[in-house]
Structures are given as C-alpha cells and as structure tokens.
Amino acid sequence: MNSWIIVVTAIAYLLSLFAVAHLGDRRAAEGRASASRPGIYALSLAVYCTSWTFFGSVGVAATDGFSFLAIYIGPILVFVFGHRVVDRIIRLAKAEKITTIADFIGSRYGKSPSVAAIAAVIALIGAVPYIALQLKAISTSVATLVAYYRPQEGMPPFFGDIALLVALLLGVFAILFGTRQADATEHQDGLVVAVAMESIVKLGAFVAVGVWVCTGLFDAPDLFANAIADQRIQAAFSSGIDGRFVASLVLSAFAILLLPRQFHMTVVENRSREEVRRARWLFPLYLVAINVFVLPIAAAGVLRLGGSVDADLYVLSLPLSQGNDALALVAFLGGLSAATAMVIVACVALSIMVSNDLVLPILLKRRDEAVMGERDASRLILSIRRTAIFVIVLLGYLYYRFAGGSTALAAIGLLSFAAIAQFAPALFLGLVWKGANARGAKAGLVSGTLVWLYTLLLPAVLPGSAFVLDGPFAIASLRPQALLGLDLDPLLHGVVISLGLNTLLLVFGSLSRQASPRERIQASIFVRQDGGASTGFRRARADVTVGDLKATIARYLGAERTERSFQSFGEAERRPLNDGEEADSRIIGFSEQLLGSAIGSASSRLVLSLLLQRHKGSSRSAIRLLDDASEALQYNRDILRIALDQVDQGLAVFDQDFRLTFWNRQLRDLLDLPPQIGQIGTPLTAVLEEMRAAGEIDAEEYARSFEALTKAPAQRQITLKRSGRIIEIRTHPMPEGGLVVTVSDMTERVQHA
C-alpha cells in the first residue's frame, strides 16, 4: 500500500465528515426535524469512546485483564441509575442559558466570573493530555502503516513530524466544524450528526476486526482454549478488583458528565427529554457493543504478536501481520474516527470557555477599544475561538512531544479524568447544599488541582526523576506518589488526596463567610428547583391530579398566576402537565413550594396534607377543615391584595433568597414588566435582567441597582432609558429575612423641581 493512499484516505474521510455536518446544518436550517434525532443524540454521546477505547482498551486488557472495563462501568451506571441527575443538569443549563461546564459551575456560585475562569483553566489543563493521547494514537498508527509498507525507505519527506501535521489538520477541521456561529446556545445539528456518524464508523471498524479475529484468524473455541492456556494471559487476568480499578470507575462516572466535550454533547446539544430517555439505554448498549471484542483481540494479539508490538496497536497490527490490507485500512479509519471526534468536540467546547470565561471578561473589564468599538462583536468572538483552537491543539502536541510519547494511552486518559474530576465536589455538592458559596468553590478547585499537578501530572512529566522518587529535599513523606507515607496505587493516591482536600476546603471555605445575595439567589435556583415533596408527601399514594393541585393553589394565588407558574414548571421539566394526570412527588413538591411562598411553609403543608387526606377518603371533618382553612386564608389574602392594588406605589416582597413572593399591579405597570415575570419564585436578578433586555437600564445600572436592592435598607433613584420615567426604589429588611421593595414614580416631582 502506497503511503499516499493513507493520506488521501484520511483526508477524504475528514472531508466526508464535513459534508455530513453541512447537510445536517442545512436540514436543520430548513426546519426539517428528523424523527431519528433521539437516536442521533444518543450516538453522539459516544464521543466518549476515543482512541483510548479503540486502541487503548485492547492494550489494557492484554496487560491488566479486566481493568479496561472500569471506564465503561462508570458511565453505564450513571445513565442507567443516575439519569435523574443527568436530566436535572440539563434542565438547569437550559433555564440558565449555560453553554459550558465552566459556565455551569460559575453560574451556581453567584455567576462568579472568577469561579468560571478557574474552572475553564482546569478544563484546559485537563484536556491537554487527552488531546495528546489522540495525537499519539493517530501518529503511531500512521507510523505503523508506513513502516510496514515502506520498511526500507522510512518516512516520506511529506510526513515529517506526523503528530504536528495531525494537530494542524485537526485544528483546521475543528474550526470548520465548530466556529461558524458566535451564539454558543444555538444547536449545531451538523456537528451532532457528524459525531454520531463517527460513532457508527468506529464501532463498525472495531467489530469488523473482532469478527475477523474470531472467524478468520482463529476459530473462537480455539482462541479461547489457547488464551486460557497461555501464561502471559493468565498473569494479566490474575489480579482482581484493586484500588486502581475503583479509582478508574469513579473517575469515569464523573467524566461522562464533566468532560467539556461530554457536557457539550449531553447538555448543550440536547433538545428534548425524549433524547435523554433514548440515551438512557442506547448509549450503555453502545458501550457494551464496542467492548464485546476487546478480549478476543487482546488475546489474539498476545498469542500472535506478543511483546514485539505495542499492545495498544494490536487492533491495527494484527491485520497487517496477516497481510489483510483492507481490514488494516478499516482499522486505521476507525481509530482516526475515534480520535478526530474527540479533538473536534473538545476544541469547540474549550474554545467557548476560553472566549467566554477568560478572554472576553478581561477585554470587557479593560474596556478594550477592539471590543467597545467593534460593530459586529460576533466576528471578534469567532476570531478568539479560532485562535484558541489552534493554541489548544498545539499545547496537546507539545505535551505529546515532551511527556506523552512513551506513556500508554490509558495512563494519559486517566490523568485527564483525574483533572476533570476536580469539578465534582463543586458541582454535585452545589446541587444539594445551598450553603456552598464561591469562596469555598474557589478554594476547593484550586487546592484539588494543585494536588493533582503534584501527585499525578508531575510524575507523568518527570518519571524516574529524583524529585519524584525521593521527594523534595529527599523528604520521603513528601514524595508525590506517597504523600504522608500513604502506600496506595499512584492513581488512587492522587485521586483520594486531591478530591478529599478539594471537598474539605469547599466545605470549610463556604462556612467561613455568609453567601452574598447573588450567591443565595443562584443557590436557590440550583438547589430548590428540583426539590421534591416534603418527607411526608413522598410516600403519599393518593389520586390527586394536577388539576386538583391547581384548583387548590388558585384559591390563594389566583387562577392566572397559578396557571402561569405550572406552565413554567412544565417547560422546565420538559413535559406537558395535563389537568387529569396523577401528580407525582415532583409536582407535589413544586406545589408545596409554590403555595409556601404565598402562605408560608407550615400553612402550605397543612393545606396539601388535608388535600391528600380528602382524596384518601378521609372524614368529613378533615374536608371541612381544609375548606375552612382555605377560605380563611384566601379571604385575608384577597383583602390584602385589594388594599395594596389601590395604592400609587409599586410593592414587592422577596424572600431571604431574593425570590418574589408577593407584588401588586402598580409594580408591573411602573417597571413595564411582562406577565411571565410576575410569578411566585421569580429571582430578583430576573426582574433586573428583563429591564436590561428591554433597554430600560444598562449593565452598569443593573449592577448598582442589584447592590442597592440587596443591602436593605437602601434608596435609589433611576431614570428608565426607554420610557423616560424617573423612579425611586426603597428597600426595607424583613424581620425573618427577605425584603420589601417599594417603587414610586418621581417623574413629575423631578420635572417641577
């Protein structure tokens, strides 16, 4: 086979991917929605299966037996048993217009730019070894093919540094695929379709090699008999589940959600709940399918090639050793497909982080003329992202050249997994603990990453050095792979210490100060949005329908506001809420929170308890108690609302998390707010953001007003830009937390002054 055939085939394949992506984008632009979209989405998640899967799993199986399964068991467990967490993260990301994992973490902690920037840097550092892994896989597979077909001549002059050529080529294709639009929230249908196609290609190629091994190279029974009799294979499978296996399993469970490329494909590119439901079974099935032939190929490689060939290249070297050129080319394309999908999606996701969380905040803070004077800011954003992509792939190339050339593929991949796992405490603890704040998040992220650098990256970059073997200044207790004398597997050691310190400092850092108002607002969104029913309601089995809950709550909030709130909840849940359907614990929990914001948590619990008892066939006294309580509460609330609607001032009450609990008609009229803002639980930030979007206030006034509103008592006068109205805002603290806001129209008074 001529070397040029390899080059032409690879380029033709990449061009076909671009054609598929272009076709997918065009179909989406024409509004031709595909019924197969859920399946395409599920297949696109297989971007998780990189060259590490295609080449490295066989290498691990050949040397460490079943250890290769750990990185697939973790994701399977997440999608089969943790799909609610996946769905929750997607819903939060859609509601908050989040485009990257760094944005998600930053948004949870008060939309903190510094938290997002730290997360972006960690993601970048963690991705570099992973990109180096793909460059290593492609360049070594090309070198293997060329060496086989040109053993005497060596590399053609054109090839030169294969890894550099591959890096530049992948950078170009990443730009072509992922930087055609500045709005990162827009779905890139072409990219999703192309990645799904690559998933099919790499699965087909791997299965083709596996079938050939089991039917052409060996008979399956003979292969099994020879394998169990071989001492090398027996030694590889002699060890059971150890600390490294457990660490790999945990890291992979985190990675399937936290890797930038996985977050992008799973969260950003998701369109419906049906896609998640399809992925729940199709993606695990894909992971099982692509691993079916790992052990047969590994066994065949050990038996036929042994140590004469790198075990990571058995998939490619076995067909070559038997003169099967066509299958060798198919295997090469499968590995190329696995690597290119990862690099392209990772570069797209990372470039968005670099532009949104690192470069643009600096330019905007400095009021850079290039930003302030740029008519079309999208061109600047795209330029930043394109530059970032080339920088990222070149960093991957440099890592490969200086540290990854002799390292096994699996070792490089686990190094990246451990880096990305530093997001886990901040993200998952932030979803369940409202007390976590930005100070704790920054302390945890920075400390965990520094420990990762010391215990895992440093030994990988400087293996065998005196510093690594003996510790700094020959202090044994400070050895990077045995801190404090811990005798653990190096991977388990680094993961336990880094994540342990990360979590510890997150907790203590958060407890060291109170959360700011913005942090409390965001915490209430991320923690409370998915809150279920109270303990007593979770196990309640009564025929309470959505319509029953609406009718009950409408007696306190009014039919219009109740309907609007349930509609918003249904959109957040991405499912229609029919009045006749039975209410599950999530709907009851939402109803309890909604009602509690109006009449208090104790009263709301009483009302819902009595409602459930009524539907269980309880006594007439219970039903009468419910009706009497409802009428009394509603009467008092109606009197209060009628009175407040007669005053000239706008009035709003926010709870301790700065979420709207009560307001009058004048408030909406004075601020010209749309109906969707007027619902229970609307964050204070949403009110200000709506005013900014309407052109009434600018970004500077937004920040000043937010500061004034959250530091009661306070007073501020604002001139609304669009309407020209001059308003005065006063805030007063509530005894048990929260604040009362009054808004007065000062236009005539100021004009006549």
**Count of separate DSSP helical elements:** 35
Oligomer class: single chain
Domains, number: 4
Overall 3D geometry? elongated
Largest pleated sheet:
5 strands, antiparallel
Strand content: under 5%
| Quantity of strands, as a count | 5
For this structure, the CATH topology of the largest domain is Sodium/glucose cotransporter
Could you give the distance between the termini?
90 Å
| Radius of gyration computed on alpha carbons | 30 Å
Strand order of the largest sheet: 2-1-5-4-3
Instruction: Specify the helix fraction band.
Output: 55-70%
CATH architecture of the largest domain: Up-down Bundle
Mean pLDDT: 83
Instruction: List unreliable stretches of 5+ residues.
Output: none
* CATH C-level label of the largest domain: Mainly Alpha
Would you tell me the structural class of the helices and strands? mainly alpha
Structural description of this entry:
- With 753 residues, the chain is mainly alpha-helical.
- The chain folds into four domains: 3-421, Sodium/glucose cotransporter, CATH 1.20.1730; 422-529, no CATH class; 538-645, no CATH class; 650-751, Beta-Lactamase (2-Layer Sandwich).
- It is 69% helix and 4% strand.
- It is built from 35 helices and five strands.
- The chain has helices spanning 3-29, 37-44, 51-64, 70-81, 83-95, 101-108, 113-149, 162-178, 189-217, 220-229, 231-236, 243-258, 260-268, 273-291, 294-304, 314-321, 325-365, 369-372, 377-404, 409-420, 423-430, 438-461, 466-470, 490-511, 517-528, 535-538, 546-557, 559-573, 585-599, 601-615, 620-645, 665-671, 684-693, 699-709, 747-751; strands at 650-654, 660-663, 714-719, 726-733, 739-745.
- It has a five-stranded antiparallel sheet with strand order 2-1-5-4-3.
- β4 and β5 form a beta hairpin.
- α4 (70-81) packs across α5.
- The longest helix has 41 residues, at 325-365.
- The chain is elongated.
- The mean pLDDT is 83.
